[in-house]
# Entry
Amino acid sequence: MSEHHRQLLDEDLKKLEQHSRTTLASFGDVHRKVASVSAEGGEKYGELFFIRKILKSCNELKEFVRKAVSWSKDIPRAVVACGCETPVEIYKL
# Structure
C-alpha cells in the first residue's frame, strides 16, 4: 500500500470521525496492518484494522464501518467480524 493511499484512507476516516462525532479509537485499541492479495491485473492492497477488545457494541462498530464504506470514495468494501460472529461484508453499491 502506497503512502498516498494510506493518506487518502486517513483523510476519509478523519472526515467520518468529525461528521459522526465518533472516533475509531473509541471502539478500542486499533492495530493496523497492510494486506496484499494477488489478483488478475496485479497485486491489490488494502489495510486491516484489528480491535482486540471492542469497547462498544458490535452493531455500533458495524454502523461506523458501513458509513466509512458509504461515504468514502477510497473505501469500496469492508468486512467486520466481532468475536465468534460470522463476518459481515459491506460493499459500496
Observations:
- The longest strand covers residues 30-39.
- Residues 3-91 form one domain.
